[in-house]
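Quick log. Single chain, no ligands specified.
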Amino acid sequence: MSLRKAGLTGFFLLSMASSPALAETAAHLKHALASQPSATRVLQAYCARIAPGVPVTAIAQPDQNDRTPPALLGTTFHLGAKETLRARHVSLQCGTLVLSDAWNWYVPERLTPEMNHQLQTTDIPFGRVVAPLHFTRVPLSSVSEGLPPGILLRNTAMLTRQSDQMPFSLVEENYLIAGFARFKDTSD
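-> predicted structure:
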């Protein structure tokens, strides 16, 4: 069994245990996310275990432009004269259960027209839409302590195209306690 598979399996088993400590659940989730380039892929695998056949969906939040992009975007992305930043704020859900709240700032000019169309008009998660880029996830931070109530883990990462290592997205993902606590064994 590969380390990646072992990490995901350990996370799933812990998440579905009768009463895992939040810190331990956060550590296993952090490990599972670090083992994959796509957080969407990790959440979909988790969703498949607890709700077979249910896809993870990205539910757009109404405040798409209410948040200022992080300062590091300007220096990291080296935007060209005709390039822009677009924000996408979504709740990633397994059925009706919210697993995470994600902010995504991306450069639409660095994606294909079809990808931009899907991001603007569908509930397909960002990671699934941009998967054809075979992107690399560059972790910037991962925090599990001192977070607002209800948040289990916050990850910030930059996504780069595999072909030329050009950054095209910065994501801030807040994984919710309720999204993972629901699957505890309630038979005791």
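Residues 1-6, 12-19, 182-188 have pLDDT under 50 and may be disordered.
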